Amino acid sequence: MHPGTARSHPTVVLCEISDQAVAESTSLGGGNVRKGEQTRQEIIRKAAPIFNRKGYSGAALSDLMRATGLEKGGIYRHFESKQELAADAFAHAWKISFDARFEGTEEISNTVDRLKQVVRNFRDRRAGLVPGGCPLLNTAVDSDDGNPPLRAKARQALSFWLDRLQSIAEEGQRRGELRSDVDCAKLATLIVSTLEGSLMVSRLQRKEEPLDSACRHLEEYLESRVRAQKSRVSKAQS
Question: Could you tell me what percentage of the chain is helix, strand and coil, using 3-state DSSP and rounding each to the nearest 5?
């Protein structure tokens, strides 16, 4: 670019400055930092399915090395321990699963319908996620004994999910869409317990019917016992 044209195109100047900053950062070692973080995230991404399918004890170092293409030293250059890698792998798997459960719910104005969509998402949007099934269910069972840090991570994830459902329900009460006598915290616990419990039964029996039945029950419950009468009438008229 001719120097005279830069004055009339400040965006181009900013881009050139940004490129220069990147080059300087790389020359000072910043590029290595970024590459190291990219490698770390890639290890987490490839380790997540292994931990989710096999559990902490079942995930052998050889499995992790084969999946990542790295030697032991290459893996543990980025993690202090297997426990740290397992915790980060769970966080990665949980975020993918959690996002899928709430996908498309923000566009739904009525909060009861939003909760019903969460139920449907749990049932229908499981394909293409981290292999091995629900990370929360898997990790809760896997870490029940002998792995307090991983158990703490699972408890934190559960609390986050419960809080999200409770906040949706509380918003619904403020807007008159949920019955005023509904205990929002207990409702959140009921939804999560029913979904996770029925998923466990479905997996053990290797059939979808228990999960399907539980989801239908929750949808009916939300409609008949949770939705406010005023909101029900308004929905029927729309």
Answer: 75, 0, 25
Burial annotation 96-108 (CB, 10 A radius, 16+ → b, else e): ebbebbbeebeee
Task: Let me know: does 147 contact 125? Beta carbons within 8 Å.
Answer: no
Give this prediction's pTM: 0.81
Tell me how far apart the alpha carbons of residues 74 and 72 are, in angstroms, rounded to a whole number. Answer: 5
CB 75 within 8 A of CB 112: no
Sign of the CA dihedral running 187, 192, 194, 197: negative
The pLDDT tens digits for 41-84 are 999 999 999 999 999 999 999 999 999 999 999 999 999 999 99
Please name each of the domains of the chain with its CATH number.
Answer: 3-82 (1.10.357.10), 91-237 (1.10.357.10)
Distance CA 190, CA 211 (A): 14
Tokens of 84: 């740290």
Residue 227: strand pairing partners: 178
**Can you state the angle between helices 135-142 and 82-101, rounded to 10 degrees?**
150
Return the number of other C-beta atoms located less than 10 Å from residue 228's C-beta: 18
Beta-carbon neighbour count of residue 36 at 10 Å? 12
HSE-up of 16 (CA within 13 Å, CB side)?
Answer: 11
